[in-house]
């Protein structure tokens, strides 16, 4: 692995003695400071009652330090690798290297993080030492390491994936995004670490995956590894075909299937026990996925044009190319994703013993909301070449669609009007699951009526693409 | 020996057809100048050949490898210099070449020698341990050539290599390119500055609006386009009498005459030229020089453009 040319290239630039001295000095100072402060507490306060307790406290502080190095600094570093190539105008040389996509991926993830990995290795020794003196079991330490590294792989690969954007011109990093994430999740993460440090039998805290009981750290690691796999597949795909969307169509469907299975696995045990409220958390999370995945596999107008040319080349101009374009459109993919989501949701209805017919109606209504939003997305794709600001208009429509019904409902003191908003409908699903079926049908009818104009506009645009193709 | 074969290559960007079903081939040792105005599709074509862009249609074979499927193999045999590039500023030329040599699978034992030779070739051996960020633009451009040469590629693709260089750096780069051409390297070089390519290319392809308007050996194209040959004649004395004699000569047409320097046009080829020379000498004119005026690329390009219009 170390013979990877990219790792050697980063070794030249990152491990120069002058750079290394700076990093090591900062690291040694932080470690010395941590040890000094804790020892002072131990000597002069009653925070720690024994050397074991002191070492246990130090262990979790080193763990927090390790998280900062691996998850935050690592993410910054991984996200900057390709960005530096693009803004530094070396990207053409980089992408022309006769290295396979996996060599480039490993080269960047390891090479760009050489200093981080070096400090992580030293920190690991200190963690093991303090953990052993603090009498933390080997089992627990292994589980923590597994979770630490699998989440690090996920964060770093996602950061790298998000930076592969050849149209990027600015030198700015995604620093703002990472800072927001740190502020959002930092207190939660470090608070949890603090709480964990005080839990007596941490290794025995478990979770369920279908009928298998697993230590919670292992469960977290496995879920992180699932997403890491997809992030790495995304990187490999981007390094091979960077102008293509993140997911292939099959990839998007497989990801959704895996995601649904993982969610089902995590909720199965609890829903089987009759904790019906959890089913809405499941629905909310999986709905977010079914809304987000189409963005990762989206076909642009240019791709439609290119694809319709290929269809014409392969199938000839006499066959019904319109239906073929429709079959390979963003709409058909999103419908496939919704079918997978529906299968998962029906399973949840059955497991949690909800009222079956009511559940089916709710899925059906959610489909009508989904369809309208999906059509707005497709309109954005198809009409972007006509107006660069079409996205803004469509976003505005989506926001009005979500907030206008609740506002009208409040003004007109209507009990059902707010159900015409996807947000309002989802809220009532959680708060008051049983809704009169006639009200549900009226929502469905309104949504379908709303879809008519977008469908006509999309139809017109598909026809235009096919006509344009004939002229090219 | 044919090393590159391009068949109906097409690249579309939305409704814009940047390269429109282009076909041609390149033999080993050819220096092909890709000429055309800005937006003609030269860069897109070069980027397709460099495996940086995927074509919408058509096929390319380089040394027998299919560009669509075996692009990783192909990359080992080509060197591509983009129009706007930089190199790793945090490395020295030696480190940079070491990285590229390893990435292009040059044998480990050969790398130090190859780095020395390449740096000497581009006249940067005294900068081997300076950081690239401290090199001038012209030096970086020559380092770009060094990066291309480190793995001894079979085909060099140079996209506007002299753009943005000062005259001195331009001459230095030109010297390097002339050396490469003299050594029999196969090169495809694009430029819209025609004087940059004249005297350097063995073949040219003129591109416009994504199409190849004309492709072939420079001499053949000159002949094809020019139709007639221009000759510069310099006589020692009796310039006026020489003009009278030339006007009487059936196969030549006077173009300009200034003192003892005369320009004549003939469509009879080499035989016509020889006959004119003999005729003047026989008539007692002391001919000092008699040289064919080759149409340069600029003339050719302007002629093709005017034919198109």
Q: What are the salient characteristics of this protein?
A:
A: 472 residues; mainly alpha; 2 domains; 2 strands; 78% helix; B: 309 residues; alpha/beta; Rossmann fold; Alpha-Beta Plaits; 14 strands; 36% helix
What does this structure look like?
The complex is a heterodimer of chains A (472) and B (309). Chain A is built from 18 helices and 2 strands. Chain A is mainly alpha-helical and 472 residues long. In chain A, a hairpin with a 2-residue loop joins β1 (206-209) and β2. In chain A, α15 (356-383) runs antiparallel to α16. The model of chain A has no long low-confidence stretch (mean pLDDT 87). In chain B, the strands form 3 sheets. Chain B has a 6-stranded mixed β-sheet with strand order 6-7-8-3-9-10, with helices on both faces. Chain B is globular.
Compose a concise summary of this entry.
With 472 residues, chain A is mainly alpha-helical. Chain A contains 18 helices and 2 strands. In chain A, helix 15 packs parallel to helix 18.
């Amino acid at each position: 692995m170390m013979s990877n040319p990219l790792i050697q290239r980063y070794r030249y630039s990152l491990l120069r003695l002058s750079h290394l001295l700076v990093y090591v000095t900062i690291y040694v100072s932080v470690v010395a400071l941590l040890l000094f402060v804790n020892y002072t507490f131990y000597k002069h306060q009653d925070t720690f009652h024994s050397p074991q307790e002191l070492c246990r406290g130090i262990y979790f502080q080193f763990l927090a330090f390790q998280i900062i190095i691996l998850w935050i600094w690592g993410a910054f570093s991984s996200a900057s690798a390709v960005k530096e190539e693009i803004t530094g105008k070396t990207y053409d040389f980089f992408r022309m290297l006769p290295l396979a996509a996996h060599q480039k991926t490993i080269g960047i993830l390891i090479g760009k993080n050489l200093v981080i990995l070096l400090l992580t290795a030293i920190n690991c020794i200190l963690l093991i030492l303090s953990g052993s003196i603090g009498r933390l079991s080997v089992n627990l330490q292994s589980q923590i390491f597994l979770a630490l590294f699998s989440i690090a792989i996920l964060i770093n690969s996602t950061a790298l994936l998000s930076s592969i954007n050849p149209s990027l011109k600015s030198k700015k990093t995604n620093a703002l995004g990472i800072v927001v994430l740190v502020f959002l999740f930092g207190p939660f993460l470090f608070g949890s670490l603090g709480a964990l440090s005080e839990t007596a039998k941490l290794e025995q805290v478990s979770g369920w995956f279908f009928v298998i009981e697993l230590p919670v750290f292992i469960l977290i690691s496995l879920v992180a590894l699932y997403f890491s796999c997809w992030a790495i597949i995304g990187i490999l795909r981007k390094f091979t075909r960077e102008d293509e969307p993140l997911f292939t169509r099959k990839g998007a469907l497989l990801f959704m299937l895996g995601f649904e299975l993982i969610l089902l696995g995590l909720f199965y045990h609890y829903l089987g026990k009759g904790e019906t409220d959890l089913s809405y958390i499941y629905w909310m999370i999986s709905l977010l996925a079914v809304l987000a995945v189409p963005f990762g596999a989206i076909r642009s107008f240019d791709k439609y044009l290119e694809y319709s040319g290929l269809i014409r080349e392969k199938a000839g101009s006499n066959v019904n190319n319109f239906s073929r374009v429709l079959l390979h459109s963003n709409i058909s993919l999103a419908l496939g994703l919704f079918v997978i989501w529906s299968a998962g949701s029906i399973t949840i209805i059955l497991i949690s013993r909800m009222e079956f017919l009511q559940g089916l109606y709710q899925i059906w209504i959610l489909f009508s909301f989904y369809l309208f939003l999906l059509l707005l997305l497709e309109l954005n794709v198809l009409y972007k070449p006509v107006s660069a600001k079409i996205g803004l208009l469509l976003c505005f429509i989506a926001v009005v669609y979500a907030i206008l019904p609740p506002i009208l409902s409040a003004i007109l003191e209507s009990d059902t009007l707010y159900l015409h908003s996807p947000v309002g409908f989802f809220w009532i699903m959680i708060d008051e699951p049983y809704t009169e079926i006639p009200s549900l049908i009226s929502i469905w009818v309104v949504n379908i009526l709303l879809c008519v104009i977008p469908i006509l506009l999309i139809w017109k645009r598909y026809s235009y693409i096919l006509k344009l193709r004939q002229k090219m | 020996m044919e090393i590159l074969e391009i068949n109906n290559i097409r690249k579309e960007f939305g409704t814009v057809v940047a390269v429109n079903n282009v076909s041609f081939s390149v033999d080993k040792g050819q220096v092909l100048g890709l000429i055309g105005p800005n937006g003609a599709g030269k860069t897109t074509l070069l980027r397709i050949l460099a495996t940086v862009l995927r074509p919408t249609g058509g096929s390319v074979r380089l040394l027998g490898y299919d560009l669509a499927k075996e692009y990783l193999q192909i990359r080992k045999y080509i060197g591509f210099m983009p129009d706007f590039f930089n190199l790793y500023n945090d490395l020295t030329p030696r480190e940079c070449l070491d990285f590229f040599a390893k990435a292009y699978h040059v044998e480990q034992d050969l790398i130090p020698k190859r780095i020395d030779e390449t740096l000497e070739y581009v006249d940067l051996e005294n900068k081997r341990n300076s950081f690239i960020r401290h090199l001038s633009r012209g030096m970086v451009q020559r380092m770009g050539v060094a990066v291309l040469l480190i793995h001894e590629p079979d085909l060099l693709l140079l996209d506007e290599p002299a753009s943005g260089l000062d005259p001195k750096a331009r001459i230095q780069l030109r010297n390097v390119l002339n050396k490469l051409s003299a050594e029999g390297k196969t090169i495809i070089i694009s430029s819209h500055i025609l004087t940059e390519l004249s005297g350097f290319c063995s073949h040219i392809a003129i591109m416009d609006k994504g199409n190849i308007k004309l492709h072939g050996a420079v001499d053949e194209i000159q002949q094809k386009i020019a139709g007639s040959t221009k000759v510069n004649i310099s006589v020692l004395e009796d310039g006026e009498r020489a003009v009278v004699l030339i006007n009487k000569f059936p196969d030549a047409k006077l173009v300009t005459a200034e003192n003892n320097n005369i320009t004549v046009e003939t469509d009879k080829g080499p035989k016509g030229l020889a006959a004119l020379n003999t005729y003047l000498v026989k008539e007692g004119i002391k001919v000092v020089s008699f040289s064919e005026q080759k149409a340069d690329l600029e003339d050719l390009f302007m002629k093709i453009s005017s034919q198109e219009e």
